[in-house]
């Protein structure tokens, strides 16, 4: 058993751990692709315990309840991402990030515009020109404040960078704001260096009732695939209803 603390710095909602970051913490010691499942709110600045049994990682809160798990996954479980957009196209898409004009998650570790460089990741994505509705992109440069002793970005920070883009893919497609990350399957192929410009892309895959599935990927500026993921978001409230056609006018 290992004792850990998810610090307030790594929040998603103000009172809970950032979903992608916590999923990355759960998966970071597993080889290859992994699937993390969040089962409850992740307390901040509180003693938590990580345990491994039968190849599965479990996170326990202070009461001993399981609040997150991770297990090995298969590469076949991961989506094939679309090609990386050009750096200028990704920059233009990021400038359309709705969080720059609306208060969506202003203090989130991943996407909060009120977080300073080196404190939050400031991953901003918006609709990609010429792509299907909801296909979003942006540019992210990992900060030196998060680098390890080799100058590389830790896996859990990469998972965090890929968290919110999948959420915003569905926000852009449907206009919905309320959803919580339930499951994330991810693979880190190469960890970028601090200061290395990267391209983030996200796209909606399928909706099933209250579940919205999204794909996410991280590329180098030259188009090298660095990481990819598959997410299931649980929406809050009923799914959007299809528009009902107006009845035809009766003939005179």
Summarize the structure.
By secondary structure, the chain is an alpha+beta fold.
What is this structure's SSE topology?
Blueprint lengths: L1 E4 L13 H9 L6 E5 L8 E7 L2 E5 L5 E7 L14 H8 L31 E2 L8 E5 L14 H20 L4 E10 L9 E11 L2 E10 L4 E11 L17
Antiparallel strand pairs: 1-3, 2-5, 2-8, 3-4, 4-5, 6-7, 7-9, 8-11, 9-10, 10-11
Helix pairs in contact: 1-3
In N-to-C order, the SSE pattern is EHEEEEHEEHEEEE
Give the C-alpha Rg.
Answer: 19 Å
Summarize the biggest pleated sheet: 11 strands, antiparallel
Strand content: 25-35%
Describe the structure.
- Helix 1 (19-27) packs antiparallel against helix 3.
- This protein is globular.
- It has an 11-stranded antiparallel beta sheet.
- The chain is α+β, with helices and mostly antiparallel strands.
- The N and C termini lie far apart (79 Å).
- The chain has helices at 19-27, 87-94, 155-174; strands at residues 2-5, 34-38, 47-53, 56-60, 66-72, 126-127, 136-140, 179-188, 198-208, 211-220, 225-235.
- Helix content is 15%, strand content 31%.
- The protein has 3 helices and 11 strands; from the N terminus they run βαββββαββαββββ.
- Strand 4 and strand 5 (66-72) form a beta hairpin.
């Amino acid at each position: 058993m290992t004792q850990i603390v998810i610090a307030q710095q790594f929040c998603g909602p103000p009172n809970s751990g950032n979903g992608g970051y916590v999923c990355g913490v759960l998966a970071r010691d597993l080889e290859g692709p992994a699937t993390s499942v969040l089962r409850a709110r992740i307390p901040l600045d509180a003693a938590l315990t990580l345990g491994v049994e039968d190849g599965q990682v479990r996170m326990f809160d202070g009461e001993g309840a399981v609040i997150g798990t991770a297990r090995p996954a298969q590469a076949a479980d991961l989506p094939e991402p679309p090609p990386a957009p050009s750096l200028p196209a990704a920059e233009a898409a990021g400038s359309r990030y709705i969080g720059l004009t609306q208060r969506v998650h202003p203090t989130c570790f991943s996407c909060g515009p009120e977080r300073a460089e080196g404190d939050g990741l400031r991953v901003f994505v918006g609709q990609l020109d010429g792509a299907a509705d909801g296909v979003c992109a942006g540019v992210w440069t990992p900060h030196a404040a998060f680098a390890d002793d080799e100058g590389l970005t830790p896996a859990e920070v990469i998972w965090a960078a890929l968290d919110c883009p999948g959420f915003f893919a569905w926000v852009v497609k449907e206009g919905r704001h309320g959803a919580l990350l339930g499951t994330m399957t991810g693979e880190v192929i190469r960890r970028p260096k601090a200061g290395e410009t990267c391209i983030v892309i996200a796209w909606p895959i399928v909706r099933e009732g209250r579940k919205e599935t999204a794909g996410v990927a991280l590329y180098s500026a030259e188009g090298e695939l660095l990481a990819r993921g598959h997410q299931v978001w649980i929406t809050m409230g009923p799914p959007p209803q299809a528009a009902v056609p107006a009845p035809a006018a009766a003939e005179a």
